[in-house]
Design a protein that fits this description.
Blueprint (H helix, E strand, L loop, with lengths): L1 H35 L1 E7 L14 E7 L17 E3 L14 E3 L15 E7 L15 E12 L2 E24 L2 E14 L3 H10 L1 E6 L21 H5 L1
Antiparallel strand pairs: 1-2, 3-4, 5-8, 6-7, 6-9, 7-8
């Protein structure tokens, strides 16, 4: 009986000792953190190749001594949204703003502005086809094609909307004249779905293409039916 009491007492002392050690270590850790003045920083969970579109799941927030945090370090995961890795990011290293490509930055290359599953396609336009030069990057346009279609010995001219709601990535080119920049609108680069590339290229090569500027707040396609030249004639003439 006495032996059992000693065993229970020993177990209780061991538990108390463990609790005391835990509290002591926890106190030491808190003291060390307070002394080191730890601050949050974002690090990569694993190696990330250059030009990768980044997501919050690829990173973790850890604490480091304030003196060890880089001045350009990213500390908030929300800043990762819409960014790319400008170069390879190593696992565990601090993420620096200078090594990221931000989606809406005007300094980015065009490839960072293309939507997933899309391609950048440049179409030559004149003053009229390009809406008199009023199309700007970020606008959305419809593409209208007028083309002669051969049916045996007869040729029929058809006008049709072949693509809708395409985002404009870039417009024209800049030239310098007497130390002054001037915009020459001779081409428009569109953010086009991959499945429409062939159609748009053939349209530009074989027919006459015009761009139709859409309202900034309009959604959807709202396509018009194809038109034939005879549809513009008076009804009586068509019947004859």
């Amino acid at each position: 009986m006495k032996g059992k009491k000693l065993l229970i007492l020993s177990l209780l002392l061991a538990v108390l000792a463990s609790v005391s050690v835990f509290h002591y270590l926890n106190q030491v850790e808190n003291t060390a953190k307070a002394t080191a003045n730890l601050v949050p920083v974002l690090v990569a969970r694993e190696d990330i190749p250059a030009r990768t579109r980044l997501t919050e799941a690829m990173f973790a927030v850890v604490e480091v001594p304030k003196d060890f945090r880089h001045a350009d370090a990213v500390i908030d995961k929300s800043r990762i949204k819409g960014t790319f890795a400008a170069e390879r990011l190593l696992a565990g290293e601090q993420v620096l703003s200078s090594r990221l490509v931000f989606e809406n930055s005007s300094n980015n290359g065009l490839s960072y502005k293309i939507s997933p599953g899309h391609r950048a396609l440049t179409i030559s336009v004149g003053t009229v086809a390009g809406v008199a030069g009023y199309i700007l990057p970020g606008d959305r346009v419809d593409v209208v094609l007028t083309i002669d279609v051969k049916e045996g010995d007869r040729t029929t001219t058809v006008t049709s909307v072949i693509a809708t709601n395409l985002r404009v990535l870039a417009v024209g080119q800049y030239i310098r004249e007497q130390n002054k920049e001037q915009l020459i609108v001779d081409s428009v680069t569109l953010d086009a779905p991959v499945e429409q590339i062939n159609t748009l290229v053939q349209a530009a090569e074989r027919g006459s293409v015009r761009l139709v500027l859409r309202p900034s707040d309009e959604k959807g396609s709202n396509t018009a039916a194809p038109r034939l030249p005879r549809q513009f004639l008076p009804a009586a003439t068509v019947q004859q």
